[in-house]
Design brief:
Number of helices: 18
Strand content: 15-25%
Structural class: alpha+beta
Helix content: 25-40%
Number of strands: 34
Shape: globular
Largest sheet: 7 strands, mixed
Radius of gyration: 29 Å
Length: 778
Amino acid sequence: MKFSVADLLDQLSTDQSVSQATLAKIFKLSNKTDKAGLDLASVALAKVGVLEILENGELQRLQNEELIDARLRCSSKGFCFAIRDDGGDDIYIRDHQLNHAWNGDRVLVRVTREGGRRRSPEGGVQCILERATRSLLAQVKQQDELLMASPLDDRMLATIQLNEDAAEHLPSDPPTAVVEVAVDRYPLAQYPAQGRVARPLPLDGGPAADRELLLTKVGLHAPAPAPRGSAKSPQSKSRTDLSEQPVLLFNGWNIKDAPPLPAVHVEARDGGIRLWVHAPTVSERIGLGNSLDGWLRDRSEALCLGGAWHGLLTPTLSKACSFNVGESNDALTVRLDVSANGELKDWEFLLSTIRPVAEIQRSHLSALADRKPRARTIPAALKPLKDHLNQLESVLFCANCLMEQEQAGGAVILNLPAPAMDALGDLNAVDPTGLRHRWVDALDKRDPNSVLQPLLRAADRAWGEHRNSLGLPAITLQVNQPDVSVLTDVAKTAIALDLPLELEEDGSPSAQELITVFAGCDQQRVLEQQLSYSLPQPMFTGGVAASDGALNPGAGHPEESTSPAPWCCAALSYAHLVNQQVLQMLLQDGKDRTSVRQKERIALGRRGAADAIQWSLFTAAQDEKLRGIVSQRLLHRLNTRRRQVLELEGDLLSLVQARAAQLLVGQEADGRVSGVQSYGFFVEVGDTRFEGLVHVSSLNDDWYEYRSRQNRLVGRKNRRVYQLGDPVRVNVMKVDVLRNQIDLEVIPTELEEASSSPEEADSPETLVELTPVTLSNP
């Protein structure tokens, strides 16, 4: 079909019916077959209880609270859960209740069994709203007389039947290539999925081939071409001239054609700091709702592929938006007054023109960090910035104050940077939007992007509060609370490591308390890594207008006031661009006085403007445009693309690490235990920090018991313990680059070999009473 079930439901509402002829026109269905597909889909959805077919043949959406919109997530072991975007409990789906849904599909689920204290609710898939997989990486296999595609992603619990032409792609031993399989028909009733080989992809074709493999895996390898047309020029009317302001560009990127970033200026004021954040004005150069806007919406985010960028913007648009030293540039600006302890006291949004005076790179910040506090000489790397060193130090001070304020407000700040590897390219730098991780990145004063992060978050918080006070729509960032059960497990692990922590009966410690306990200990990194698993991924949500649809001051919702509305990096994320569009409309089209006869105008971008406005900000046509700017369909698209990008970046890191591990096969290396399970333990090895598994079957010196409460493996005779954070020396045995599976073997030290002698192992002094444990066969 030319449309998905999600597309169909997006056109329906609960208060107004739509004719099938109108839907056919929207979906551009011209022939009888396509229109028959629409009829068939309508009847099927009516039986499920999603919509109603009225007597006149028109369709109307039903409000069915029993059907839950969710995203399917499967594991390699066959366990599947429906993950809800609204933050509700995950729903366990048994294999016979999947109804041919695949990992990543958007589905409607009906709960069949309520959950308990330690049991997830169970349910069944009633309808597949949208398929996540249109092509996949696979290997061709012969099953009897049939050729089947076996997906490389072991979360894809299905095989796809291929035609006879696929025989030429049967793999060699060892395999040198995989294939991309395009899905022609999804499984239906007793009929299996069918597909065809779209192209072979080499396994060892170099960095470019690796990037193509990863893009194909997440379905981002075939983007639509950009529409024709040139970008608009921002209007010069009502712009504030800030070209005399010594603005600094902070740029942590090293790759050509990287997305443009905001610029900043800082000055001391009234015992605090006045911070100016100047964002590249992307929204002024595109028309809301035109073909370019739709193309950007479909792309959603810029992709960093290590040594290359797949930008969100077209090259022409990106160049037009970029700030350049010594050149006048149009910007969207916010002026923030920050107290000495990092609190936002005042702000004002405005359209501006700036002229940056210098670009700050990693080499500059590194030289500044290495410079002695009272040194009179200026390092060679800083001499081009000698006139701006005081401001640069003020920017660092401001970033530190804002970080301390966030920490005091409960932010979870972890120091878990990616390993420094040339192959990671710009992924070595911190993501200035802060969306890459589930936590707040610790401040790295050598990384320009890391310095930008807290400044941009402050600007996002200001817009989140300002737009809420005016009742304007926005895409906000929702950060949910950590998983308490995981926090408790991490706390128990810390106690087992003899860290100074007490676990009370009435609850688990907070993430901030655990971070304080971990600080400075040998196991800090691996414990913070375990702690990070308790943090849910931030989600884009929609901050909308009042229930009556009017976009009037004071119509916002108090509970949304603290939700940041990101807008500074529109060249990186379409969510930022949407918020920029709303901000631009406020500053350009918002009504700042009751009538043209009134001389006094209200500064609509200034904090507290809503208190002085007693009139509608926009015309009816502008209201209508703003009400449609944020939709559930758009939020689903943005969150789905965010998951794809995170998966892509994670796969790229794993692939680069696996390539590094390949060079060490057969060699010894030092590492640290990063995880313990009943089947073995994981070790993080070397500076590249690739993670491999020491399987319990390779520990042939003893029978090892897994003690889940202490998160450790213990030898029954020699009492040898493997627990989180232990340093170990391993031998790299085998590396499967495509599946990121690295097999390791522990090399016992001489002291360990001596301690495992039969005489000492059988000695009564070494025997202790054992608690009930789970046994794992060696």
